[in-house]
Every structure is written in C-alpha cells, then in structure tokens.
Amino acid sequence: MNPEPDIHPPSPIAADGIVIRAARPSDYEGIAALGSLPRLRWGTLRLPYQSPEATKKWLESQTPNNLSLVVEKDGVIIGSGGFERYQGRRNHVASLGMGLHDDYHGRGIGARLLREILDTADNWFNLRRMELTVYVDNAPAIALYKRHGFAIEGTHRDFAFRDGSFVDAHTMARLKP
C-alpha cells in the first residue's frame, strides 16, 4: 500500500535559496512584517501598522479563485503576490498584486514571482486578462510590468492618499498571449 501523497510537495529551491510557494495561514506574521516595510508600503495601498491578525484573517479567507504566493529566501518571507479572480461576466479577469522586501529589489526576484503568477493565470486558471494599478512614480514596477506584456490603459488622478499627499496611478492590463 502506498503512503498518502504529500498535500504540499516541497517547492524547488533555486541555487540562490529562493523558493516560491503557495501562501499558508501560518505565514501571516512574515507577510504582515513584509507589509510594514517602508518601500513596500510606499508602492501599495497598505496602511501602516496592519496587525498580523488582520493578515491571518485575510489568508484564511482566500478562495480557490484566488492565488496567493510567497517568496522565501532561506526560510524567511521576502515577497508575496498573487491575484484575485473576478466573478460573473468578468470571470476571465483577475486583479494582480505583489510586493518584495525592501532589501531585495533589483535582483530579478520580482520578475520570477511575476512569471509564476502569470504562468499560473495562463495555464491553470485560463485567465484572459490580468489587471493592476501602479503608482505613476513607481518607474521600476512599471518597467517590470511592461517587460511582461502589460500596457498602460489609463491614469487615475488622485488615486490614493500616500505619505501626506495624493498620488496618481496607472491602470495596466495584459491580455493572455
């Protein structure tokens, strides 16, 4: 008799110690700490001082229509990302979000995470359209998204309040190739 298969097989570890895997409710403290970093928070809609308990509740509320991934380096969460699929007549569309630890920008890790998200969206969820918003002053993120097939479709003026002032954001989208 064969033993039961592992529900969560280990993710392959790259030579640099990076692992991209499904987020688990037990990751809540690492994800909450990640979201409190100044550079990561600057590029997102996250508010300061989000409690680990709020992050845990969010992780526990994920549905099979959503994808939540984390990036680990040597067992420490250094990134997260995923998408939330829309319902009804927009069932072919999802909204993307991702962030990376302040100390790991410019190393290609965000690109690896984005490729995993898009591969899953294209080849497992059969999503036709991926959407996101990005602040207009986040040039590295905009360049990353453009390299992966996203195009700017418009600009939301005074989209969010960040660090004492309003900031505009581009809406970007990618159609499945």
From TrEMBL:
Presence of keyword Acyltransferase: yes
| EC number(s) given by UniProt | 2.3.1.-
Provide this UniProt record's keywords sorted from A to Z. Answer: Acyltransferase, Transferase
Q: Which residues form the signal peptide?
A: none
Q: Which CDD domains match?
A: NAT_SF
Read off the InterPro entries from this record: Acyl_CoA_acyltransferase, GNAT_dom, N-acetyltransferase
Which Gene3D superfamilies does this one have? 3.40.630.30
Q: Which GO terms describe its molecular function?
A: acyltransferase activity, transferring groups other than amino-acyl groups
**Boundaries of each N-acetyltransferase domain copy?**
18-173
Family assignment?
Belongs to the acetyltransferase family. RimJ subfamily.
Q: What is this protein called?
A: Putative acetyltransferase
Tell me the organism.
Microvirga flocculans
